[in-house]
Amino acid sequence: MGEVRRAYAQCPVCSYVFRQPSASTYVTVGRDSDLCPRFPGFPGRRSDAARLIQNGLNNSVTLCPACSFAAAEDFAEITLLSDEREELRELLREDGLLKVFRAAQPSWLAFHAADLCGKERSYDYKELGDLCLRGSWVCRAEREQPFESTFQLRAIRYYIRALDDEPLDDRELSVTTYLVGELNRRLGHHREALNWYVNAERALTQSETGSTEARDLSWLDRLICRQRELAREEAA
Ligand SMILES: [Zn+2]
Which residues have C-beta under 5 Å from ligand 1, the single-atom ion? Predict the structure, then answer.
């Protein structure tokens, strides 16, 4: 994608104008089993990895340094009614984690704020799940284990609601189901993990046989088998 991000952003909530980091293109060398991109040299320079995850060209999250409004969209494309602005302002002012961490601005804070604002702005559960998944990647890159688990739990909850309530295409259905399994495994919930891997297998089989838009998901098939074995060993 050749899209270039604006050098300056104006916050749609508090109107503060700030310079935003330029979006980075990056080279990856595969992915972890929870689909976190791996960068060459990682984990040698973990803050670099966290920054790449936050500012990657197709998945950036912008955080207003003044009021902590955050979103995955370009700020210029967000329009808010004045009562929405007021609601968000109040929400951001009162949030406990923001109160504690606003000054230190750890890398994961943007994802927490984007989750908070996204919920208020009625993002899809799938989108909220993806935000929290990426938040967990940033925490892992920064070795913030308790926060990594917090984001993983949030991602699981959102993904399950997305699977229940939202129209996902075949690919999203299989990948999301797999991720619920994999995040459970990472949290040590092996029985849940094994159940979800089975569901993911089923979703995958149905998508391969039943759908015209079935895509090549053999990588996912292999991943499910491998991680299911791993979960079995870990559970034993
Ligand atoms: Zn702001």
Answer: 11, 13-14, 16, 64, 66-67, 69
| C-alpha dihedral (185, 187, 190, 194), degrees to nearest 10 | -40
Q: How far is the CA of 17 from the centre of ligand 1 (A)?
A: 8
pTM for this entry: 0.91
Distance of alpha carbon 102 from alpha carbon 66, whole angstroms: 9
Range(s) of the domain holding residue 5: 1-122
Within a domain: 74: yes
In a domain, 191, yes or no: no
Average pLDDT over the chain, rounded to an integer: 89
In tens, the pLDDT along 134-186 reads 999 999 988 999 999 999 999 999 999 999 999 999 999 999 999 999 999 99
Q: What distance in angstroms lies between residue 46's CA and the mean position of ligand 1's atoms?
A: 28
Distance from residue 94's CA to the centre of ligand 1 (Å):
14
**Amino acid code (one letter) for 75:** F
Alpha helices in 18-62 (DSSP H): 46-55
Contact call for residues 99 and 50 (beta carbons, < 8 A) = no
